[in-house]
Design goal:
Helix content: over 70%
Distance between the termini: 47 Å
Number of helices: 2
Radius of gyration: 19 Å
Length: 73
């Protein structure tokens, strides 16, 4: 089945990376975008992804800490 839970998350990450690389190649080849601009956008997007991941990790850590403090009795 297409929508089964047996899919591996690694394959989804690989497909997302390949799609991103294909889009960047299309921007360079098809639209004539300079490579330095593509590199700048790539670095900006990576920095934003890291910020979102750090924020998510912080929220989860705070929730676990609050849960641990709440069930201390």
């Amino acid at each position: 089945m297409i929508f089964s839970k047996n899919r591996k998350p690694k394959s989804a990450i690989a497909v997302a990376l390949l799609a991103s690389l294909a889009f960047m190649a299309l921007a360079v080849w098809g639209w004539g975008m300079p490579l330095e601009k593509v590199g700048q956008f790539f670095l900006i997007s990576m920095a934003l992804i890291v910020c979102v991941m750090v924020a998510a990790i912080t929220v989860v850590a705070l929730l676990k800490l609050l849960q641990r403090l709440r069930h201390r009795d």
